[in-house]
Amino acid sequence: MTNRSHEQTAREREHLLSFESVKRWMGRETIRSKKTRIGYLDHLQVLLEHLGCNPDELVARRIEDMAQTDFAKRERLEQSVREFKQELSRESAGKAFMVVATACSFLKANTGARLNINNPLAEIKQEVWMYEGEPSREQDFWRNIVDHAPTIRDAAVFLIGLEAGPRDGSVMRMTIADMTSEFSGGTAPYKLRVPPPGESSTRKQGGFGFFAEDARKKIDAYLSLREARGFSAEPADPFLVDLDTGTRLKDPHALNDALKRAFLDAGALSHDQVYPPDTRLSPVRWYCLRKRAQTIMEDNTDGTGIALNWVDELLSHRKRGTQATHYSRPTVQQLRAAYAKAGHRLMIYRDLRRQMTGDQINLAVQRVLQDTLGEKLAREFEKMQSQTVTGAQVAKLLRDIASVSKEAE
Questions:
Q1: Looking at the structure, do residues 130 and 279 belong to the same domain, yes or no?
Q2: Are residues 213 and 188 in contact, defined by beta-carbon separation less than 8 angstroms?
Q3: Which of 78, 99, 118 is the last residue of a domain?
Q4: Nearest 5 degrees, angle CA 251-CA 257-CA 258?
Q5: Could you give the 3-state DSSP secondary structure of residue 207?
Q6: For residue 161, is it within any domain?
């Protein structure tokens, strides 16, 4: 920005205040301080001079971009601001930050949507991995990704991420026993032990989750290939190893690299989308698998969602509030039954809802309850769902369930 006299900058501010879009922006309750108003107006002038337009034209450009169905065209203004930000950063990082903050605030006041400067391809990211209430399309998309995994090991770990949602650091630390301890004589969903993801004081929480039959098949195939190549597959051995050398995988970046290759080979995104100029902004990373699992578990549109506090237990999240931390703590059996009801939406290679009626799904859930609680407790649990019961009856059932839970553990 060139040096200006006080009179010139004052005239520029007055000129900006003559536009309806600026009046609307300055009328917001959040802009109260006179110093803030002056700073915003000065930085808006810098941006407008660079783009060669006035405030109303800037709003019109943003609205035109938002109406585009082509995602590349929707980002034209955002890309211009990103490039200007990089240019200003060479002169002053503080000035670059303020120009971007001003642009975001101004356009949010006039269009209802902020510019997306720091995380490109937000729309594509949302469409790619966010659950939108259409399980068949979602499963078809992810089935294509898993089918294009670089190795059978990657396919197995993708399914674990999609159906159980553990952190990538936890997956790197898992042993074969963590994955397969319930395979012998067990029925889906299978329990997965989730170790803490690392030594950081903020990442020490481990836990457990569940996954379905299709993930078990991929795990079995991977372990069979591993043994065929002469690599150890004892319960205490690490789950993820290099299939060429048999050495343990230690860097979570290996998972992200495999996922990016699968996206490219499946034709889900272009190379420039998977590998943008700033690779930290790539929309393809392990988090998208974990987010899908959480979003589907919490979705209760068809009555098979899992309570939010219980989802926290399954994803090893920090508990939400005092109620969740000290009172609402489900047992392993309750979580298994809840996961079984939501399983048809989490699975990638089977859609139980297409093959089973509602009564058949309920019967499958009752079988899970019988496997975990025992037939007698399952009948009592079912009766209590349709009857008014006393506190003493509830207490007795909970004691019985707790007793069975300890034996199972």
A1: yes
A2: yes
A3: 118
A4: 105
A5: strand
A6: yes
Full domain range(s) for residue 71? 6-118
Residue 258, domain CATH? 1.10.443.10
Q: Of 100, 118, 136, which residue sits at a domain end?
A: 118
- 147-195 residue pLDDT tens: 999 999 999 999 999 999 999 999 999 999 999 999 987 889 999 999 9
Q: Which residue has the tokens 């783009």?
A: 51
Assess whether 158 and 216 both reside in one domain: yes
162 and 274 part of one domain: yes
More confident residue, 97 or 403: 97
CA 63 to mean position of chain CA atoms: 28
For 308-390, where are the alpha helices, taking DSSP H only? Answer: 308-315, 321-322, 332-346, 352-355, 358-373, 375-386
152, 263: one domain: yes
Statement: residue 409 has pLDDT above 50: no
**Do residues 99 and 206 both lie within one domain?**
no
- Report whether pLDDT(351) > 80: no
* Pairwise CA distance, residues 313 & 232, whole Å: 32
- 191 Cβ partners below 8 Å, 6+ apart? 181, 182, 208, 209, 210, 332, 336
pLDDT at 368: 59
Q: Residue type for 284, please?
A: V
Give residue 323's pLDDT: 59
3-40 pLDDT tens trace: 567 888 888 888 998 999 998 888 875 676 788 888 88
